[in-house]
Amino acid sequence: MNTYRLLLGLLFMPLAASAAGKPLHVVLVGDSTVTEGSGWGRGFSKFVDDVVTVTNVAQNGRSSKSYRDEGWWDKAIALHGDYYLIQFGHNDQPGKGPARETDPETTFAANLARYVDEVRAIGAKPVLVTSLVRRTFSKSDPTRLESAHVPYVAALLRVAQEKSVPVIDLHARSLALCESMGPAETARFDFPDAKGKIDTTHLHEQGSTVFGRLVAEDFMPILPPRVAALITMKRATRFMVEKVSCEGGYVWSYLPDLSRRWGEMEANPTMIWIQAPGTPAMGQGFLDAYQATGDEYYYQAARKTADALIRVQHPSGGWNYVADLAGEESLQQWYATVGHNGWRLEEFQHYYGNATFDDRTTIAAADFLLQFYAQKRDEKYRPALDRAIRFVLDSQYPSGGWPQRFPLMAGFAKQGHPDYTGFITFNDDVVAENIDFLIACYRQLEDPRLLEPIRRGMDVTLATLQPSPQAGWAMQYTTDLQPAGARTYEPKALTTHTTARNIDQLIRFYYLTGDRKFLTRIPDALAWLDSVQLPKELAGARGTHPTFLELGTNRPLYLHRTGSNVVNGRYYADYDPQNTIGHYNSFRSLDTPALRARYEKAVATPPEEAVRGSPLKSAAGRVRKTQNQSRAADEEPVSEARVARIIGQLNAEGYWPTPLRSTSHPYCGDGAAEVTPGDFSRTMVGDETDTSPYFAAAPVMGISVGAYLRNMDLLVRYLESQP
Q1: Per-residue DSSP letters for 255-282?
Q2: What are the backbone angles phi and psi of residue 147, rounded to the nearest 5°?
Q3: CA atoms within 13 A on the CB side of 544
Q4: DSSP letter assigned to residue 533
Q5: How far apart (Å, rounded) are the C-alpha atoms in residues 301 and 319?
Q6: pLDDT at residue 13, rounded to an integer
C-alpha cells in the first residue's frame, strides 16, 4: 500500500482554537502612500487575507510630526494592535511647511524612535517601512529614478538598527522594480489627479496590488511562522478555488494562462480529472486544511469539490478517470480524438461509459465523500456516499475479487487480446484499497453488512496464489481464478511486484483478523520470489527481479514495441532483456529480506495480540486512512526553515511555480498506417500524432495540483506540530 496515516476515526473536530486562534491585528500607520484610497494598504490587505486583521489608519498629507500632533497616533495606539507598520517620509521633506517638515538626522529620527517605544509599551511589535519611491525618472538618465527620500530612508534604517526593529525596505524594493520596468511600463501605475496632472506618487488599485505585495512579501518573515503559514495556505487555496477550479473540479497541471491543461492526458477546459492527483485529492487537501485550521473557507472549498464529484458520479455509483462538465457528447469526442491516439495509454483508447477502480479512481472519490460526510454529517451527501458503497458491493464477484471496470462492458479487444476490464484485478492494489474503504465505512457508518464482502476480498487474495513451484500472483484473473493478461504490454504471466504486494496484504489481513490461514502459504511465495531473481549480469541498476514470469516455465518475459503510433504500433513480449520499452518497467526492485522479516514477526505474534489494533475486532481499533495519493513519501522533518522556504516560493498570483515536466502533443489527427521514420521502441511517446504524455526537454513553469497538495500537506503538518 501507499504511506498511511493512522486516524482515530474520521470525526475529529478541526483544531480551530489551537491552530487558527484569534487573528493577529496589524495596524498601518503613515501618509497617503499607505492609505486604502491611494496607497499600498489596500493591496497589502489582499495578500495577508483574512488570516490577519488589518486596520489602516494612515492619513493623507501627514508627516511623522503632524500625524502625532493632530491626534492620529493616539487613535492608532488605542487600537492595541499586535503589529504596527509605520511609514513616513513623503511629507517630512523640506517645503511641506513647519507643521509637517522634519529633519532626517534629528526630529524625523526622534519621531520614529518614539513611535517604536510607544508601540512596544503596549506589548505590540513595531515594523518600520521606508517610503514608497516616486516614479519620477531622471531626464539625464531615463533608466534611473530620482529619489528625494534617500536621507529619510537612511535615518529610518539607522533608527531600526539602533532599536533592533524589523524593517521593510519598500523604498529599495519599489525603486528596483520601477527601474527594471522602465518609464513606459511604470506609467501604467500613473493616473491624473484632481487637477489633471499626472500623479507619479500615489497608486490606483493595480499599483496598490503590485506594491502592497512587496510589503506583504517582506512582512511574512517577520510574522510568527504559524501565521505566515496560515496566510500562505489561504492565498494558495484561494487561487486554486477561485482561479483554477472548473466548478469545483481539477486536473493535474496547467499553463500559467490556463490555455492548456493536463490530467494523465491533455484535457479540455471543461474536463475534471478524478484519477489522482485530481479532484478527490484536492478535496482531501481542503479537508486536511480545515481540520488543521478550523477555517470554514476550506470546508466550503471541499464542499464544492464534493458537489463536482456527485455531479459526475456514474449512475452505478462509481467514477471514470475523467469527466466533462460540458456533457457526455463532449467527453465522447475527447475519447475519439485525444484518448484514442494515446499509443501507450490503452485504457483511454475506448470509451466504455462506465466506472473504474483502476488507479484508485472510484475509491479516491468515494473515500473523500465518506470523510466529507463524516465531518459534519450533512445528509445531503449521504445518498451519493451510499451509491458509492453500493457500487463496491455490486461489482464484487462471488469469489471476492473486483473487476477493473463496472458495470461490465467487454467492448474493446485489441490486436487479438481480449477485453480485460472485466477480469479480477490486483493492479494498483484494487482489492486492498476496496477492503480499506469498506472497513472505513463499517467503522464510520456502523454497517455490519460490510463484514462479509471484506472477508471475501481477503479470501480471494489467498485463493489466487498459484501452486508451487510457481507460487506467485498474476495482476489479473478470469472469473474462474485463472491468470490473465491486461493491456497488450501486460501479458498473461505471474508478476513479481504483485506477488510482493500481496504477501504484504496477507500479513496485514492476519493483523486485521487473527486468522493464521493468511500466513500459511507466504513461505511458498517468498521461495518463488527467491527463485526468480535476476542473474548477476542483469541485476543492479535494473533491479532485483523481472516483472513478468512465463506461466509453466518461470522464464522472464520482456516488453518491446514496434511502430510509431496507435495505428501502426504493436507491443510484444519475448525473452530478450535488451531494448525494452521505456514507459513500463520490465524489471523490479523488491526487498524480499524485509518481506521475510515482516512475515516472521507476524508468525511470532499470537492472534490475540495481532488483532489488538484491528478496526474489525475492537471499537478502539484504528481505521487506516490512505494518505492523499498526490503526496510523495516525505520523511524530511518539517522544520521552520523548510516552512519558510515554502512560504517564500509562493508567487504573486498565489501558486507555487512548478516545472511541468510532463507534456504532450496536441491532437492533430489520427495516426497513419505508415510508420514514421525514427526509433520509438523505448521513447515515452511516438510520432506527432501520439497524444501520450512525455517528459519535456525544457519544462515550462506552470501550475501543479501535486505541488499545491505537497506544500499544503507540509504546512498542515507544521501547524499540527505546534503546541
Answers
A1: -TTSSSEESSSB--TTEEE-SSSSHHHH
A2: -125, 125
A3: 11
A4: P
A5: 20
A6: 39
Q: How confident is the model at residue 118 (pLDDT cuts 50, 70, 90)?
A: very high
Residues of the chain with CATH 1.50.10.20: 352-532+588-629
Q: What share of the chain is helix, strand, coil (3-state, %, to 5)?
A: 40, 15, 45
Cα 443-444-449 angle, rounded to 5 deg: 55
Contact 413, 419 (CB under 8 A): yes
Angle between helices 296-311 and 361-376 (to 10 degrees): 130
CB 388 within 8 A of CB 317: yes
> What's the CATH number for 352-532+588-629?
1.50.10.20
Say if CB 507 and CB 602 are below 8 A apart.
Answer: yes
Distance linking the first and last C-alpha atoms of the chain: 31
pLDDT one-digit tens code per residue, 9-56: 333 334 433 344 578 999 999 999 999 999 999 999 999 977 899 999
User: What region, left, alpha or beta, does residue 702 occupy, with left being phi > 0 and alpha being psi -120 to 50 degrees?
Assistant: beta
Beta strands in 494-598 (DSSP E): 494-495, 545-546, 548-549, 556-562, 570-574, 587-588
Residue type, 573: A
In angstroms, rounded to a whole number, what is the distance separating the alpha carbons of residues 453 and 267? 36
CATH 3.40.50.720, domain 4-223, yes or no:
no
Report pLDDT digits (tens) over 634-680: 556 788 899 999 999 999 899 999 999 999 999 999 999 999 999 99
The boundaries of every CATH 3.40.50.1110 domain in the chain are 4-223
- pTM, whole model, 2 decimals? 0.91
Joined together, the cell numbers standing for residue 140 give 539625464
Residues 6+ away with beta carbon under 8 Å from 94: 101
- Nearest-10 Cα torsion for 347, 353, 354, 356: 20
pLDDT at 634: 57
